[in-house]
Amino acid sequence: MRHLVIVVGAGPAALYATGKIAAKGHTVVILNRDIKPGGLAEYGIYLSKHKMKEGLRKQFRQILADPRIIYFGGVTVGDAGAIRLSELQDLKPNAIVVGAGAQGTKSLGVPGDDGPNVYHAKDLVYHYNLLPPFSQREFPMGNRVAIIGIGNVMADIANYLVTIRKVPEVIAVARRGPVERKYDDREMRPIAWHIDKEALKQELERIRPRLGPLGQDMDVQFKELTKDCHVEPKAGRGPTRIKFRFLASPKAIIRDETGRMVGMEVEENTLEERRGQLSAKGLGETTILPVDTVIFAIGDVVDLDLGLAPAKGAWGYSTNPKPDPGDPETAAYQAYDPKAEQLLDGVFVIGWSRNASEGVVGIARLDGEKGAAVVNRYLAQRPGFSRREIYRRIGTIYHHLRKRTVPVVHKGLWRILERVEREEASKRGLEEFKYGTNDEMLQRIEESIVRRP
Ligand SMILES: Cc1cc2nc3c(=O)[nH]c(=O)nc-3n(C[C@H](O)[C@H](O)[C@H](O)COP(=O)(O)OP(=O)(O)OC[C@H]3O[C@@H](n4cnc5c(N)ncnc54)[C@H](O)[C@@H]3O)c2cc1C
C-alpha cells in the first residue's frame, strides 16, 4: 500500500522533505504558491550568488525528477488562495506537510510606519529577485535609508542599495551593540569598502561609555568591523557610504504635513544582562535620525491566511506543546490547534513555517528532513491507498484548481519555462534571466508549446 502526502510549499524545507518521503515509496503532491520551485533559494538568496543558486536548482531538479512527485506551481493554499487547507484535509490524504516558509511581515508598530517609504525587507528582496507580484511594485528610495536590524538580510539589502540603487547613505540601525551584530562578515565583505570608517569611529566613541563597563572594547570592534574595508568591491565603487547606529530602538517615523518622511525617532539603549545574554534596555532618551526611507529587516512571521494558528510568543505555526517524553522530536513537527487544544492529526510543519527566519538553506534542509522522518514514521503505522485511489484524489485536487481557473504549472511546464529562460539568458549574454510576471511566464510556456509540438 502506498500513501498520499500533500506538501504545501516548494522551498528548501519542503523539497528536501519531499525527497525523503518519496524515497520511501509514497506519492507526494506539492502545491506551491510560486510558479517556480525553490522558495527563498530562488527568490531570496542574493542576486550575485549565481553559483549557489544554480547548485541548489540542480538538487531541486533531481528531487523533482522522481515520478512519485507531482508538482503544481502557481497554487496558493489558504483562505484567500486557490484551495483551503481545510479542503485539503477533507480529501483525506495520509498526511499534509506545511513548508510554506514565513510569508507574513513583522512590524514594530511604531507611529508613522504605515506611510510611504517604509518597507519590509522580504518584500524588497522578493522585488529585486523578480518574484511576482513584488517584481512589479515600486520601491522608491530616498537619499538616506535606514535598515532596521543587523543580520545577513541587512547585508543583502545594503548590497542592493549600494550596487543597484546607488543610494548615497545607508544606515544599519541596531538595538544592541557591535558585539551583538548578527551578520556574517563574509556577507558584508562585497560592500565593506563602502563603510564610512570615520563615521564608524565616531559612533563607537559615542557608545564607548555605555559598553566599556561591560568589558566590550570599541577599538577591537573598529578593527573587526573594518577588516574588509580594503577589499575592492567586485561590482565597482559606488557613491554609497554605509554607517552604523548602535543602541537605538525605533520609536516613531516622523513626517511633515505632506506625509513625507523627514526622520526616525529612536530611543537610546544600554545593555543589561538578562537570562545569560545581553539585552537592550531603553534609557528614555530619544534622538531623531534624519532619514527619508526605512526598511525593516527584523525577520518574518508565518502567514495567518494559510489556515494554521501561530505559536504563542513565537513567529512560526503552533506545534504540539505536550511532547511524548519518549519522543520529544515528533511533537516539534506536529501541527496543533491551540483554540481546540488538540493536534491536527496528520498535519505537520517544517522549515521556516515551524521556526520563522531561522538559519540558512542547510538548516531548512535539516529541518525538512527531520520532519520527513517524523512523517515517514507516522505513515508506517497507517494503512495506505491503492494506486487508483491515490490518482483519484490527485485528480480531485486538479479539477478543483481548474474549476477555480488557476493556471496550474506542472513539472513538464516548469521545465519548459526553465529552458525558455535559459535560452533568453544566452541570447542576451546574461548569467541568468527571469520573467517577472506570472502572465509572461505562462505566455512563454504556451508559445513554446505551440512552436514545438
Ligand atoms: C533575504 C534572504 C537571503 C538569504 N540568503 C541566503 C544565502 O545566501 N544562503 C543560504 O543558505 N540561505 C539564505 N537565506 C535563508 C534561506 O533562504 C532559508 O533558510 C530557506 O529558504 C527557508 O526555507 P523554507 O523552505 O522553510 O521557506 P521558503 O524558502 O520561504 O519557501 C517557502 C515556499 O512556500 C511557498 N508558499 C508560501 N506560501 C504558500 C501558500 N500559502 N501556499 C502554497 N505555497 C506557499 C513559497 O512559494 C515557497 O516556495 C536567505 C534568506 C533571506 C530571507
Can you give a write-up of this model?
- Helix 1 (12-22) packs parallel to helix 11 and helix 13 (411-428) crosses helix 14 (438-451).
- The protein has three domains: 4-103 and 301-406, 3-Layer(aba) Sandwich (Rossmann fold); 107-298, FAD/NAD(P)-binding domain (3-Layer(bba) Sandwich), CATH 3.50.50.60; 412-453.
- It has helices at residues 12-22, 40-43, 50-64, 85-90, 121-128, 152-163, 185-188, 197-211, 218-226, 328-331, 361-380, 387-403, 411-428, 438-451; strands spanning 4-8, 27-32, 69-73, 95-98, 104-105, 118-120, 144-148, 169-173, 241-245, 248-255, 261-274, 277-289, 293-296, 300-301, 334-337, 342-349, 409-410.
- The chain has 14 helices and 17 strands.
- It has 453 residues and is an alpha/beta fold.
- The protein is 35% helix and 21% strand.
- The structure holds flavin-adenine dinucleotide.
- Flavin-adenine dinucleotide binds next to helix 1, strand 2, helix 2, helix 5 and helix 6.
Features:
3 domains; FAD/NAD(P)-binding domain; 7-stranded mixed beta sheet; 5-stranded parallel beta sheet; 453 residues; binds flavin-adenine dinucleotide; alpha/beta; 21% strand; globular
Mean pLDDT: 96
Helix content: 25-40%
Bound molecules: flavin-adenine dinucleotide
Low-confidence stretches: none
In angstroms, what is the radius of gyration?
A: 24 Å
CATH architecture descriptor name of the largest domain: 3-Layer(aba) Sandwich
Count the strands?
Answer: 17
Which descriptor suits the 3D outline?
Answer: globular
Give the N-to-C terminal Cα separation.
Answer: 37 Å
Q: CATH homologous superfamily of the largest domain? A: NAD(P)-binding Rossmann-like Domain
What structural category do the secondary elements indicate?
Answer: alpha/beta
Q: Strand arrangement, largest sheet? A: 15-16-4-1-2-3-17
The biggest beta sheet is recorded as: 7 strands, mixed
CATH hierarchy class name of the largest domain: Alpha Beta
Which fold name corresponds to the CATH topology of the largest domain?
A: Rossmann fold
